[in-house]
Design goal:
heterodimer, A: mainly alpha, ABC transporter involved in vitamin B12 uptake, BtuC, two-stranded antiparallel sheet, 4 strands, about 75% helix, B: mainly alpha, 3-stranded antiparallel β-sheet, 15 helices, about 70% helix
Amino acid sequence: MSALSRSRVWNAGGVWIVFAAVLLVMPQLFSSNFGLTILCQIGIVIVSCVSFHLLLGEGGMLSFGHAVYTGMGGYFAIHALNAWGKGEHYIPVSLLPLVGGLGSLCLAFFLGFVSTRQSGTTFAMITLGTSELIASMALMFSDFFGGEAGLTANRVTGHAVLGITFGPQIEVYYLIAVYCFVCVLLMYLFTKTPLGIMLNAVRDNPMRVGFIGYNTLRIRWFAFMISGFFAGVAGGLAALNFELVNSEVVGPVRSGAYILFTFLGGIKAFFGPIIGAVLLVLTNNVFSSLTKAWLLYLGLIFYISVMYLPGGLASVVVRHLEAVKTMARLQGIGGGAGGAAQTAFGKIVKSYLLLLLTLLPLMAGVSLIIEMLYQLQLGDSISSDFYFAGDAVDPQNPWVWILGLIFSGLCTLLFNRARLYTQQAWSDFDEIVKSHQSALEVLQEAWDGVQHKAEDEFVPEFVHESADKSTHQPTHQPTINGGQS
Amino acid sequence: MEFFVINVLNGLSFGLLLFMLSAGLTLIFSMMGVLNFAHASFYMLGAYFGYVVNHVLGFWLALLLAPLLCGLLGALFERWSLRRVYAGGHVPELLLTFGLSYLVLEGVQIVWGRSVVAFTLPESLKGPVVTLVSEPNHHLSVFGRWQDPALWQALCDSSRQSAEALSQCSPFPMNRLFIMLCALMMMALLWGVLNFTRLGLIIKAALTQPQMVEALGHDVPSVFMLVFGLGTALAGLAGVIGGSTFITEPAMAASVGSVTFVVVVVGGMGSLVGAFLASILIGMIQTFAVAIDTTLVKILLQLHIQLGDSWLHNPVLNLTLTQIAPILPYLLLVLVLIFKPNGLLGKKP
């Protein structure tokens, strides 16, 4: 290994140490029963979402049936656990998630063969079909799937290795944490292997990959299996955690949640799905108990972020980190560049304050209207008093509606102004960066010069080339006059 | 005999309803490359709009206005949302329509509630259109709606006859015939518009040569908006018919949605003829699976195959065809994809 890649791994190592530390420390910070429950779920869902990211983010394959692999992993694991409980086989409980993983790997071997022969939209539809197939079968074959009630198991069976019985939740948490860390690390390393990089290439330009002699179908298929394996591990962990698996875990609602939250977290950066996973668990456990309308809010947020934030939350983080890095470099160039950039960045921060100041009342206004709508439609089934932000509101009163609508309208106008101001602030910043582009490039080249000497050259040239532009645009792009107008 | 005829007719009508749904989807996909995940949501919207218009203006106007409203909403969605994400490729398009399906579902539940609404066909479309009567001496006779109902009612009245002398009566409902007629008319209209009008010419040209068509002075983005609106209007039409014939409830989108996507994939993405074939195929399979009440064990026993006890009581072999009917379309999907990865009539990408 060269000097440079060693330093790069070292840099990345810092992040991993922080990740491990967070996983270790979390149960000390949230030591209540509820906190621990949430943490366990987060650990499991992180593995699911990152495995989904291997498909969607790294491979450009939008699967509508990811829950099949997590759910079936759960079923395989719980069957193994029950078999062990009866004394039929011997598998240490801590290795059960691997049983789930291997089971899902087999399933992904067969279903992946069918699905990955197509890409893009057709692939998405096929995964939808296979997911419906498994979900319908789950209600049909009650021997394997346990019917409506599902299957239960007891995770405290057999010999306790090192005195760990997995009876207390905290022991399960640490098992989940270890699996979460190892799986995420392995998946990250997978994206750096030749296969992982070819997977990116297949996402960006399958035709070229085919031309130089790679079998694109096989690359997609392998990636599908690897994703299926990790999804199965997550399912196995979930089976251990809940000691219950029912047909819901393979259902389309679960698959939809993976899509929604992985995208919200961000599919253009590896850590995006981790943010998404945390959001998924918090939404399902905390947010959903706050309001009946949570699915509507979720749909709205998702819809808006597909349109305006295609990189998800992770892209926001990445953009700011890069801006800070660029600022530091401009500082190094000297000649007032750093100062100008800092002023521009100050303006961005100021615009964020404005955004926040207008966004909060806008959200309040919109949610007041949505809550009143829900109250009117479902009013009979809920208690007769309706509280919004601590105050009793009467949804029958037309004045509340009129005021709410006017308020929301005004806030929308103000928010739009703040949004434009933010855009302006960013373009000012980009302008400054651009005007010092040449100096920055000299700096970059000096830095790259050191790097390139040591780089292994297993990556074909075109991968670099096509990585930064999206080459899979439709040929008949209907945005010729006025797409972004 | 009459069992077979009636089930073929039922299968055809269900298949044609599926085709009405998948035609809009295929139209949008073949013209724009966009797969509208929310297509079934527009089907549901069509049913609910139809329910409202039906209350105010009657069924026939609902059949006209509800699809128009759906088409309008679809066009607005294309103009203000979908158009923004074209540049990102197909995945954002799919995700956006996926998000829309969430919003429509929640919106419908806010406005019309979570339970079934009472949307039924007018009296003129109820009742049997023909009744097939198979008499005990294997004589088959057909009684139409226009004939005196007393004729066949006398034959089918079970109280008058002994069980051996009873005739088998199978009515074919008027609403099924109506579904078939609507679908065939829609098919003819669509085919005519695409092949014999100036608009169809422009649409087809904009598909392959958007820059050139634009250079010739046509507004290509508007053409796409129109196509999207047309596709969603077709879904709305299917929604009015499907919603009034079967049931109008928030779960209706999910129940037809995935079958529609199966139809489109089995037929070959973007092929209207393929979608037609696949719709009929799946309609037939579903209808016959529900109608034929048998299990694998029964079939094997009828073929005089000796079965052990464990086989006789095997739960999988004892599932009735009716029970496995829901998974048949998906099994068909997997089978077709193994042997023809591009679908029945799909072109190579």
